[in-house]
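Quick one:
INPUT:
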């Protein structure tokens, strides 16, 4: 029978429409401004006592609280407006720092208000870009003093090894205690001149100053101005790369990570839900060092560490271990790291080293079978100290290293580029450590200078203009369709609304999709293209009627014969959209996503959706005239 869908096709249209409604409706529920409290250490759960401390402090400060909850190992406190949220952050941060110093991260957040029944179905609002909704803004400063110290420390180790290869033995080779200066002392002028030759040839970033100390010759090395600028640029650029990698690991769409000034990095994350996790992951200055345990001394008989060694505590243990200062490899040699479980069900990280690191590890483990090796975890945390400068009190933020051995194991056999790190507290910690290692080590620690939520970058007036253009486009198109195509125009408008519903649902479901102003332009274009498909179908029906074909046959021929033309036009546009997505970035990708999705949904609604409704109205009936 002409113009009758089988039951399964009608049910398919109903099911897809219902699907679109369910997954689009969360966008009608606005988010609450909130403050999120998360443990600074991965895998640690935020307890009710922490939430109570925060709530008591807010009550004493007179900050109105809308609600609170414990979820996903975090505490979330909601507020009626953004002003209360910003005030609450400083109050909660001060209260927790007093009672739990350094243990918790307090971050601004936007808490969804989607009903539980929708959340249970995986429905959530779509993410909006910085130009529409704003997001979270971090301004971070690179600790240049530490960058300089790190470079000098690495250089001293390289010089010591180079001198040893050339048979140049220095009585003293070290970094000066109170300045970024390398000091070296030689017993004879001949050895000092040999050292000078190596330094002039291989270490041209230094100015060399010579002096006599008793019978010894002393060389002092200071960086040139150009070298200092290069170190500064390297530290910022390396941190910029690592931060970008970390942001990518978080799965944030269309982030902004850029250098600002000499030593600062600005980070803007649109539509981020878990800002505490983002803050902890982005700002964590953590590294690993693989060192040999000192086998020459018994730590039980050591009152102070011998030269070239350090004493460190072992995680989750009262015992201490004596480690060599010289590193075998560091986190900078890691090219891949993945969390997993060992044969005992304990969390671990599977590590792959680069070629240079693998060779050093193989050489060391071959020479030290049955000796012990430790994995030293180093985390740099900012501390604000009060200092006296020019007779006045001022505050300065400095970074302090916290070190602990997370694993001490006996080398049972030689290994190189692939091995495992064990001794971790939880799988969450293993996952975070693997993320930090994959993203790359920071060249220097960083600390947060500023944290705030940012409003729409294009301004409220531009957003209002964009929304107005969308609404005006809808109204004009829908009005034209009703006037020109009568009942069929009304059916086309229903399909158009269904198209937008499905498009919003798809945008809400795709994890990486973010709607920006260019994306809204893609939706407007999609509306036009969806109507264009219906125009082709309706004009074909009218042409068939003019040729004397019966109404039922005209409907059938109109849909069937217009299909190939519609498919042709949409496939070429879809290809363009895919090319834009593959080659474009930022706003261009946002436009390409909505355009491509809109083409797919419009194909369904214009061809299958409208025909299903037309079939319900006209199918299987005697029709003398069509309202088209």
């Amino acid at each position: 029978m002409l113009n009758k869908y089988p039951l399964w096709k009608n049910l398919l249209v109903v099911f897809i429409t219902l699907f679109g409604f369910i997954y689009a409706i969360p966008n009608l529920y606005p988010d609450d401004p909130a403050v999120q409290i998360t443990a600074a250490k991965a895998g640690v759960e935020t307890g009710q006592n922490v939430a109570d401390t925060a709530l008591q402090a807010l009550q004493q400060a007179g900050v109105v609280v809308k609600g609170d909850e414990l979820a996903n190992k975090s505490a979330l406190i909601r507020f009626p407006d953004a002003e209360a949220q910003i005030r609450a952050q400083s109050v909660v941060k001060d209260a927790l720092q007093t009672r739990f110093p350094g243990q918790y991260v307090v971050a601004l957040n936007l808490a969804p208000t989607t009903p539980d029944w929708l959340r249970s179905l995986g429905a959530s609002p779509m993410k909006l870009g910085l130009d529409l909704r704003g997001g979270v803004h971090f301004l971070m400063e690179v600790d240049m003093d530490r960058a300089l110290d790190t470079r000098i420390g690495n250089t001293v180790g390289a010089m010591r090894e180079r001198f040893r290869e050339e048979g140049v033995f220095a009585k003293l080779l070290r970094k000066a205690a109170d300045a970024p200066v390398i000091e070296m002392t030689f017993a004879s002028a001949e050895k000092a001149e040999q050292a000078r030759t190596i330094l002039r040839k291989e270490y041209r970033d230094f100015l060399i100053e010579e002096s006599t100390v008793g019978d010894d010759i002393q060389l002092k090395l200071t960086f040139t101005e150009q070298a200092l600028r290069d170190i500064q640029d390297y530290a910022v650029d390396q941190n910029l790369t690592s931060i970008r990698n970390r942001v990518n690991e978080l799965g944030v769409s269309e982030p902004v990570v850029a250098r600002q000034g000499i030593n600062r990095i600005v980070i803007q994350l649109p539509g981020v839900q878990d800002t505490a996790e983002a803050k902890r992951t982005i700002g964590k200055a953590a590294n690993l060092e693989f060192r040999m345990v000192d086998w020459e001394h018994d730590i039980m008989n050591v009152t102070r560490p011998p030269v070239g060694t350090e004493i460190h505590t072992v995680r989750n243990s009262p015992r201490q271990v004596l480690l060599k200062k010289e590193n075998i490899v560091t986190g900078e040699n890691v090219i891949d790291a993945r969390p997993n479980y060992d044969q005992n069900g304990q969390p671990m990280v599977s590590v792959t080293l680069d070629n240079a690191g693998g060779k050093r590890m193989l050489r060391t483990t071959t020479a030290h079978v049955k000796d012990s090796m430790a994995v030293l975890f180093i985390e740099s945390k900012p501390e604000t100290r009060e200092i006296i400068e020019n007779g006045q009190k001022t505050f300065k933020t400095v970074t302090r290293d916290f070190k602990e051995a997370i694993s001490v194991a006996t080398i049972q056999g030689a290994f190189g580029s692939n091995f495992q790190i064990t001794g971790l507290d939880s799988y969450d910690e293993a996952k975070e450590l693997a993320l930090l290692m994959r993203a790359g080590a920071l060249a220097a620690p960083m600390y947060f200078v500023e944290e705030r939520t940012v409003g729409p970058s294009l301004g409220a007036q531009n957003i209002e203009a964009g929304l107005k253009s969308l609404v005006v486009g809808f109204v004009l198109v829908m009005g034209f369709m009703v006037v020109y195509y009568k009942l069929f125009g009304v059916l086309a408008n229903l399909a158009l609304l269904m198209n937008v519903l499905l498009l919003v649902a798809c945008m809400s479901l795709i994890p990486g999709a973010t709607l920006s102003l260019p994306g809204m332009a893609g939706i407007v274009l999609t509306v036009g293209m969806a109507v264009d498909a219906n125009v082709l179908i309706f004009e074909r029906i009218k042409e068939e009627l003019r040729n004397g074909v019966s109404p039922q046959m005209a409907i059938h021929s109109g849909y069937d014969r217009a299909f190939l033309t519609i498919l042709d036009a949409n496939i070429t546009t879809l290809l363009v959209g895919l090319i834009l997505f593959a080659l474009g970035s930022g706003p261009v990708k946002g436009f390409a996503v909505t355009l491509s999705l809109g083409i797919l949904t419009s194909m369904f609604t214009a061809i299958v959706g409208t025909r299903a409704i037309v079939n319900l109205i006209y199918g299987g009936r005697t029709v003398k005239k069509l309202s088209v």
